[in-house]
Give the backbone structure.
Amino acid sequence: MYFYERATLEKDQLEKEIRLLKDHLAKAPSGNLQCHRNGNSYKWYLTTVKGGKRKYLPKSKKALAEQLAQKAYERERLKRCERDLRAIERYLKQCTQNCQYEKSLLRKESGFRALLKEKLSFLAAEDLRDKWMEEAYRRNEKYPEHLTHRAVGGLMVRSKSEAIIAQILHTEGIPFRYECEQIFNGVAVYPDFTILHPISGKMVLWEHLGLMDQENYRSTTFRKLETYIDQGFIPGDNLILTWESGGHPLDVTLVMDIVEHYFKT
């Protein structure tokens, strides 16, 4: 993945984290925490912004001390995120300005593209990818009301995590179809993503399992995995699995690493 694309994704993540941190800080208790060593332990003090007076917090106020400690940490993290965001925005602005001519040479309407195709093999692969992407395919028609998240190109998907995966695949130039029908033993199955490997041309399926803390969902998932394996789709080879639960959301960095590992090497 080019650094520009990584920076774009990192910018999105920083903006989300900044919004979350600001929301947490707005709800945090007033005042600040001071910790002073007392032998092998610490004494806690609540200080006010005005006047700088401090008030001793007994052990019974541990919950308040924890909230104030989290407030101090999140305040400093917010400063770092905002610094990082400003740096990335400066880089993206400069890079966008400097890369326009390079991109213009490779556009389909450019006369340079046809002349460069034999020298730059990825251009031919792009043409095959685009043709595959433009072909019509049968999609899952069940529960259309659950398609509530807009992904790249206006594609509607069923979760924020699927939108993230779609965005990264698109950014990396990995051709994919969303909920494309596959017929296994006469039964229609709709993997989240059907991917045409940009180098080998083989089919790779990607299932994002987003409700793993729900027992019924797990049972259905395990049966689905048996079907995939029976059809020759093996986890770690041509079947990619990502997992998520309420307390463990999808890690964007992990998705980028997966794409790098499966499709860039």
